Amino acid sequence: MLTYSAVGLKEMTVAQLQDENRQLELQILALKNERARARARYEETIKKLQATREHLLQIERGVDHFPKDISK
Amino acid sequence: MNIEIWRKKGQLSRLDTEITANREKIQQLTIENNENKQQQRLHVQELQAEIEAAYERIEQKLSEEPHKWTLIKQWIRNNANADPPDFPPLRIGERLLLLGLINARQLNKCLEEQRIHGGRLGDIAVRFGYVDRSQIQDIIDQSFKRLLLGEQLVRAGYLKRDQLEEALRVQQSVGGDIGSILISMNLITPAQLTEALAVQNQTGRLMAYNKQEVMNAKLPEAVAQRFKAIAIRRSVDQCIIAVDALLNDEAIHQLAQIIDTPVTQVLASPWEMELLWDQIYQEEQLHESTEKLKKEQPENSASQTFTFAQIICMIVIGIVIAAALLWNWFYTLVIINVVIQLMYFSMTVTKFIMILYGTKENAQIRFNAKQIQDIDERALPLYTILVPMYKESNVVPQLVHNLDQLDYPKNKLDIRLLIEKDDIEAQEVIQSLHLPSYFQMIIIPEGQPKTKPKACNYGLIRARGKYVVIYDAEDRPDPDQLKKVFLAFQQSPEHTACIQAKLNYFNSRQNLLTKFFTQEYSNWFELLLPGIMQINIPIPLGGTSNHFKTDVLKKLGAWDPYNVTEDADLGIRLYKQNYTTRVVDSRTLEEANSRFMNWIHQRSRWIKGYMQTWLVHMRHPIKLHQELGIKGFWGAQFMLLSSPLLPMLNPIFWSLLVLWYATHAGWITAFFPGIIYYLAAAQLILGNFLFIYTNIAGTYWVVHELYRKKETWLSYGLVRYALLTPIYWAMMSIASIKALWQLIRKPFYWEKTVHGFDQERYDTTKSNSL
């Protein structure tokens, strides 16, 4: 009888631990997703900012090389 | 037993180790994420500072050479349609700076405001009082050159020229706008497209917004729905609205009149709009998805199981039967038996007739491979696919694979994965898959009833497709199904509102239960349903793979969220409104229930739903008769009553048969007087034979057809199991009694069917129906 109870208790503990482990795995997945989302947002922002920076460098060069006499 | 404990101990210690490792991993990931975010934020800030500095440097250079600056100003003013030599195309802020209308500090302030709240830079500069509206307008009028969208994206650096050319080639063959093609090819992001569209159309772009501010600016839902616009900021002199397709001047004028404020629109991507709708109008949309049918067509809603009149009617019938039993119980039971025998007989004959009709070649709409190949893909419309699911994250990867197999231009797909709010696991799994943009996850808010039709209604509210179809998470539709349905709609009369594809099971070989289930579905979808279509009586639709015209479906009030077989109910409502349903020769393979209790849950829900549907539509039998006509009325009675009634009555007559063979009791014979005896005997022998025979025929029909097409996922060996069908009937009887009990106790309770027990073993996704 005692053996049966022990097995029952163990089964319950295993189920609880499995559930806890599953929740932890879900948390890991959520953190990985959060990282991927942040990365995608970051990359898109950086791409846009780099394009703007490049664009402004071209304007700067344009200002530098602008002819002193535009009639030419 | 000690070995058992020892084994469990081993398992426990393994689990403990895993849990500890996972906890550590979470800690590590949290730290890493925070560090990454911090680094990313710093990098973004650095670049922003560089850009701010660049504007200041430009201003500095110009100030240092006033003569050159004057020349640049002159050049810009005199050559308004061209940019200065060696300059890239100038944007409005840069023109303002170079013309000396604003200084670098002011420009940076405007850009910061735009970053935070969105809107057009020119409008912001005017609002801050840096420039006049007329100055901005002059610059826009002189300098604005509308570029083609692709050019705009190339110029912005989001797209390479060869990628654009490739997308243009795709556009020539499949049609549709270039933006959606680029997104479907994963060449640009929806945000980049929206930004390019905003520049192209000289309008603002939705940036970050304050939810509270948006809530305060909220338009009435009907107005928002009508204009497909959400107000994000509202003051006395301006209302900024977010749209995913720009409104024309007339619409803007109408909206301004309604809200009595000038309107400015900013562009948002469809995905951003979806998020906004969800945040701002969630309550209204939830209400619409649960209460619309109930409010607009209360007579068609199952929100009330029994009406007062039905309760009275049942009480009266009960009293009459009780009184008759008291008066003469024997004759009363004989009369009841006579009625039941006549009903059995009529149902058997009707089913036989339906099956005969179902065997006709034209009972299903059929297309050959050439007809499918000849479709001009440019003519294909946008197609919405709704996939409601709950706690089925294990089948999501397979689902995505199955839907990706569909032979349909991806830029014309609007796939909506409908996930319940508390199903966090599915949400995370879907996010981790980084799905293409034509997949969209819609979170269904909490609220009762928590049913599949409610989720579908929620997903339908902003469905963009001309046609809409439902698939379950484990479904494997034939790759050419959408194209076949498109052709079927083209060739059908205008009042055809629904095309039903046939359902069958990919795991028939798994066990006896899946074999029974496959036989039943083969019979139902291959013979019976096409037969019903031929006779033209109401068709109880299958749970998935029913393709609708979206506008008709919305007009009908969509699915009844209180009905647990919303598909069968919708079939009756379509018929009431004189719409027809047709069956197309295309299959969707599903997973047959392989576990007894799981099967009982599912089947009892179906039977309960048929009872619900019958009760709903029989609230006013005379009116229903007028609406459906005599054929439709009796057809509906047959379809809706046979499923729950026969399995409930069968055990009584099986018991009588066993009892008679055991005892030869005279009172049993007495219940079957005269012709009723012969009728019952014919039922017993011919009726049962017919039911078994149609199972054999249906199964053979499908297997034979598949073999002709060189598909072997069903085998001829399945046919012989039809001889064991009576076992399946007994199971149906158990389910029907449970259904009746649940109809009284928990009418709206949606008993969940668990899927995904045996997905990988039965991979049929590589076969094509043609």
Structure, described:
- The complex is a heterodimer of chains A (72) and B (770).
- By secondary structure, chain A is mainly α.
- Helices cover 88% and strands 0% of the residues of chain A.
- Chain A has one helix and no strands.
- Chain B has 770 residues and is of the alpha/beta class.
- Among the domains of chain B are: 203-280, GMP Synthetase, Chain A, domain 3 (2-Layer Sandwich); 344-752, Spore Coat Polysaccharide Biosynthesis Protein SpsA, Chain A (Alpha-Beta Complex).
- Chain B has 29 helices and twelve strands.
- Chain B has an eight-stranded mixed beta sheet, with helices on both faces.
- In chain B, helix 15 (282-296) packs across helix 20 and helix 26 (621-663) packs across helix 29 (725-745).
- In chain B, 38% of the residues are buried.
- Residues 762-770 of chain B have low confidence and may be disordered.
